[in-house]
Design a protein that fits this description.
With 268 residues, the chain is an alpha+beta fold. The protein contains 9 helices and 8 strands. Keywords: Cell inner membrane, Cell membrane, Ion channel, Ion transport, Membrane, Transmembrane, Transmembrane helix, Transport.
Length: 268
């Protein structure tokens, strides 16, 4: 019995150290979340600072605190900070090779925040993937598609891809195309479209609405339409104008042709 007690007493300091380390780890993890949240709210509260920077700064603060917690936990087990630095220095090459993709994402994250090709809330297309920017942190960019699908894009891929920002400018050009029959009056059809455009308050007068014959197709005369509007009105204007032009054409006797197939039978 005494031998068992002696053996258990030998593990006492280790158990106490493990309990301390667990307490520091839990407290540090909670503190990292709370402090990073405070940083995010404080930075985002300023109207002069973009919310993208607030999220990125909060992410940096969280990871710095977690790194400090890790050093403190290792110190509880007797591993000094100087020894830790020496070990990390010796393992730098191996870690760099193993995490080169992650380090690339980290560096790309800083570049994205520095140059800010997109911000939170903007609708973008990155390397063929489209969505609204929900978050930008140290390692990845989060997008949300119009049908509410979450997309996680590593920052390294985002920085190295072609970025199309549909929300960067306050205005956008809405391009439409309508086909009319060869027997219809093209000038009459263009006047109908211009009247509808001028009557819509979302269409800007400068640059003025533009309607031209852009192509003579196989079965139709194609009319190109260019309308300038606020970026927020783009999709509503595009859908409404398409419907309005179709109804106006029907009302004014302008036909919209569709391709015809002619079957030719060879006499045997």
């Amino acid at each position: 019995m005494q031998d068992i007690i002696a053996q258990l007493s030998g593990y006492g300091p280790m158990i106490i150290s493990a309990a301390k380390a667990l307490a520091v780890l839990v407290f540090g993890w909670m503190a990292a979340g709370i402090i990073s949240g405070m940083v995010r709210r404080r930075v985002n509260a300023s109207p002069r600072i973009d919310k993208t920077i607030g999220n990125f700064a909060a992410s940096i603060v969280k990871w710095v605190i977690l790194a400090m917690v890790l050093v403190a936990v290792l110190g509880i087990f007797g591993i000094q900070a100087t020894s830790l630095v020496a070990v990390m220095g010796a393992a730098t090459l191996a870690i760099g090779l193993a995490l080169q993709g992650t380090l690339s994402d980290l560096a790309a994250g800083f570049m994205l925040v520095l140059f800010r090709p997109y911000k939170l809330g903007q609708y973008v297309e990155i390397g063929g993937t489209s969505g609204t920017v929900v978050d930008l942190n140290l390692f990845f960019t989060e997008l949300s598609t119009p049908d509410n699908v979450q997309i996680i894009l590593p920052n390294g891929q985002a920085w190295g891809a072609v970025i199309r920002n549909f929300s960067h400018h306050a205005t956008r050009r809405c391009d439409l195309s309508f086909g009319i029959d060869y027997g219809d009056d093209a000038d009459h059809a263009m006047r109908i479209i211009l009247d509808l455009a001028n009557a819509d308050p979302r269409v800007h007068a400068d640059p003025e609405p533009w309607v031209r014959v852009v192509n003579l197709g196989d079965s139709s005369v194609d009319l190109g339409v260019r309308l300038w509007c606020d970026a927020a009105d783009y999709w509503g204007l595009k859908f409404d104008m398409t419907k309005s032009v179709k109804e106006a054409f029907d009302k004014n006797g302008v036909s919209i042709p569709y391709p015809h197939q002619v079957e030719v039978q060879k006499a045997g």
